[in-house]
């Protein structure tokens, strides 16, 4: 079962996609203020956030069962998170809740089959419509400790500021009901569009990359909004060790 590593892959894809999260841009003034200053402020607001909601749609991964096609993850600096993930074709989907060192993961039958192959149906029969519950001290769930830690992700971002690709402002528009400034340019040779809030504090709302086999949309929202604290009830969960025993897996 690879839920934690898949979350990590999905978050990493989102961060690579969003230049304003991890790069510094030198930019021209397209009439809506200096684009470089907007990008730097948007980056700073991501690095300073105590919690964030991150979304990703990777259309290029839609046909690949082993890759994350979409995700919606809220996480904070204390390592708490709540999210949902959909894999590419035939890979199923799963939800995750992490609070402290406890993890709950709920997946559909297609996910179990794609991850456990011959044992997948048996695992799905054991779990039924329940969460698998464990801790980040257990092998299968160890990856969740880092994948759900916003502080760790921000540290990685702060070290990734070597890009000299330029962005240029390209007018104003509205996206998801928010007034934004649109910036266009390239990142690693791929056409990239950023949407940053018109009003201060300037925050990244969405980043889009399309071209050369890439077709991704990433969103950032809920800056500083607490991660939901509700966790699944004991009756809605099955212990990870019990699942591994009953499905014939160990470790």
TrEMBL record:
<dbReference type="InterPro" id="IPR029046">
    <property type="entry name" value="LolA/LolB/LppX"/>
</dbReference>
<feature type="region of interest" description="Disordered">
    <location>
        <begin position="209"/>
        <end position="251"/>
    </location>
</feature>
<feature type="signal peptide">
    <location>
        <begin position="1"/>
        <end position="27"/>
    </location>
</feature>
<feature type="compositionally biased region" description="Basic and acidic residues">
    <location>
        <begin position="242"/>
        <end position="251"/>
    </location>
</feature>
<protein>
    <recommendedName>
        <fullName>Lipoprotein</fullName>
    </recommendedName>
</protein>
<keyword id="KW-0732">Signal</keyword>
């Amino acid at each position: 079962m690879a839920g934690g590593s898949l979350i990590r892959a999905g978050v990493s894809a989102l961060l690579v996609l969003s230049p304003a999260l991890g790069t510094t841009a030198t930019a021209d003034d397209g009439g809506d203020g200096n684009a470089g200053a907007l990008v730097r402020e948007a980056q700073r607001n991501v690095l300073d956030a105590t919690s964030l909601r991150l979304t990703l749609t990777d259309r290029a991964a839609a046909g690949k069962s082993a890759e994350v096609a979409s995700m919606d993850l809220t996480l904070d600096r204390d390592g708490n998170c709540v999210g949902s993930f959909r894999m590419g074709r035939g890979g199923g989907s799963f939800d995750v809740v992490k609070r402290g060192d406890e993890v709950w993961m709920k997946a559909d039958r297609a996910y179990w089959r794609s991850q456990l192959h011959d044992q997948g149906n048996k695992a799905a029969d054991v779990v039924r419509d329940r969460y698998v519950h464990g801790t980040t001290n257990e092998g299968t769930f160890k990856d969740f400790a880092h994948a759900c830690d916003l502080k760790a992700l921000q540290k990685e971002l702060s070290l990734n500021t070597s890009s000299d690709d330029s962005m240029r402002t390209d007018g104003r528009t509205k996206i998801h009901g928010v007034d934004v400034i649109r910036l266009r340019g390239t990142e690693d040779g791929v056409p990239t569009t950023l949407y940053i809030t018109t009003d201060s504090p300037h925050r990244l709302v969405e980043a889009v990359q399309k071209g050369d086999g890439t077709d991704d949309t990433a969103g950032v929202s809920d800056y500083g909004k607490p991660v939901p604290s509700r966790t699944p009830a004991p009756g809605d969960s099955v212990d990870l060790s019990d699942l591994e025993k009953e499905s014939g897996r160990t470790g």
